[in-house]
Amino acid sequence: MSGLKEDAAEVGQGSGREFLVVDGLHAGYGDVRVLHGVGLSVGRGEICAILGPNGAGKTTLLRALCGMVRGRGTVQLDGTSLSGRSPDSVARLGVAHVPEGRGTFMPLSVEENLRLGAFARRDRAAVQDDLDRVYGYFPVLKDRLKQAAGSLSGGEQQMLAIGRALMLRPRLLLLDEPSLGLAPLVTRELFSIVQSINQEERTTVVVVEQNAHLALGIAGQAHVLETGRIVLSGSAADIRADEQVAQSYLGYRI
């Protein structure tokens, strides 16, 4: 397993260009502990995949990063601590979270959903420009502008959820299971758009995804979670190419 790290203590000791740094993160719900000392780092402008089986703590990790779940340990974004902040405070620092299940406001129109994504911004004059930018990535949303979000297809709702997140002008985009319930063709299109957003806007992306092959195809690095602990870290290419890793941690054969 050349290039891969199986010692969680080594994670986060990078080259000094880390944008997101998580160290010793413990989090859970009430008395139930889900994350046990998670540590990782993500470079500015990178795509990082978080992989692992159901129940490993992937969703809890994203919720902890955006302030939805309180924990102990440290989370820093570009040198600024996110620890202990409320979700709206984290959002104002440029962190956009697209939750599992999309979280769209079904009775509201596509345009209203998108404008809600800019709630934390003060540069209201630039919001229309960013609407046009979102329509550039997702032209179908412009065609559905006045349509209720609840009437969109699953793929269109996922595009709307990502588009709403982009209205924040995020520095860090957190995506939780973006392929859930989508047809393979729609999923590939969506991941291609996420890759374009990353490349064109230099937005740092952390994506939790059950479709390991797809996530590793666009990511630069990856971390594998198991029972609330990082058990493996390395480049996405190395993890994708290693048959032992695929069978042991990701549940498929190469």
TrEMBL record:
A Pfam family recorded for this sequence: ABC_tran
- List, in alphabetical order, the Gene Ontology terms for molecular function in this entry: ATP binding
Q: Which keywords accompany this UniProt record?
A: Amino-acid transport, ATP-binding, Nucleotide-binding, Transport
Specify the ABC transporter domain's residue ranges: 20-252
Q: Does the keyword Hydrolase apply?
A: no
Classification via SUPFAM superfamilies: P-loop containing nucleoside triphosphate hydrolases
Query: Quick check: keyword ATP-binding in the entry?
Result: yes
SMART domains (UniProt xref)? AAA
Transmembrane spans: none
Entry-linked InterPro entries: AAA+_ATPase, ABC_transporter-like_ATP-bd, ABC_transporter-like_CS, BCAA_Transport_ATP-bd_LivF, P-loop_NTPase
Q: Which family does it belong to?
A: Belongs to the ABC transporter superfamily.
Supply the PANTHER family for this chain: HIGH-AFFINITY BRANCHED-CHAIN AMINO ACID TRANSPORT ATP-BINDING PROTEIN LIVF
Q: What is this protein called?
A: ABC transporter ATP-binding protein
